[in-house]
Amino acid sequence: MQTTAYQTTFEKEDNYWWHAARRQIISHLREKQAQTNFPSILNLGCGTGGLSEDLSDSGKVHSLDYSNDALKCCRQRKLTDLVQGNGGQLPFQANSFDEIYALDMLEHLEDDLAGTKDIYNALKPKTGFSILTVPAYQFMWSHMDTIAHHYRRYTYTNFKKLLLDAGFKIEKLSYFNSFLFPLALIFKLLEKKPKKNDDESFLPTLHPLINTTFKEIYAFEKHFLNTIKFPFGVSLIAVVKKD
């Protein structure tokens, strides 16, 4: 992303519906996993640090991102243990982390299998777990994917294959952001050309009431993800372990 896009994300992500609701869902799924006391945590593709800040009270958080602009935003949050690096070449020893988060990171890697194997390698066996999310459906490709430097979007089938090929045991795999999927699909189909401002395309400004409504609808899915598998959605989410 461009430097200004990181700053825009930093300024908006604490309350922006997509980020805020996703963090609620991640927190809910995390609580269902058996956890060690004060775990070692790795947040891959940490971006501007919203999730790392949420997790910082729970354990020792290492935050990695390829972009120095992203890490500058993390420093504004007073986050420590920041690493500039490639998500496909992790600078960590094997079996280092109790929890690894890779939220919308794998689509940024040209070789996503190598990146997924790196996550597997860095995760502690048996007790460790990882939560990963990726964007769904290639036909949903938009200008946002372009400016975010994505290589691909995923289906349930090829995301599952990627996780299994990396060696993971899949605890949970489902589409999510499903309740808003029809609306997202309409917007994608009507999109004809990029907006005049890339930052505005990436995180369009919404009326506070709309933002709150979207956030509540999206976050409400947390009550279902532990027990059901959504058949479609804007994104995919997985909880995996190293057997």
Commentary on this structure:
There is one protein chain. With 243 residues, this protein is α/β, with parallel strands linked by helices. It has one domain (3-241): Rossmann fold (3-Layer(aba) Sandwich). It is 40% helix and 17% strand. The protein has eleven helices and seven strands. The protein has helices spanning 3-12, 17-31, 50-55, 68-76, 112-122, 143-147, 156-165, 181-190, 198-202, 208-219, 222-225, and strands at residues 40-44, 60-65, 82-84, 99-103, 129-135, 169-176, 235-241. Strands 3-2-1-4-5-7-6 form a seven-stranded mixed sheet, with helices on both faces. Strand 2 (60-65), helix 4 and strand 3 (82-84) form a beta-alpha-beta unit. The longest helix is centred in the N-terminal third of the chain and has 15 residues, at 17-31. The model has no long low-confidence stretch (mean pLDDT 92).
How is the secondary structure organized here?
Elements: H1 3-12, H2 17-31, E1 40-44, H3 50-55, E2 60-65, H4 68-76, E3 82-84, E4 99-103, H5 112-122, E5 129-135, H6 143-147, H7 156-165, E6 169-176, H8 181-190, H9 198-202, H10 208-219, H11 222-225, E7 235-241
Parallel strand pairs: 1-2, 1-4, 2-3, 4-5
Antiparallel strand pairs: 5-7, 6-7
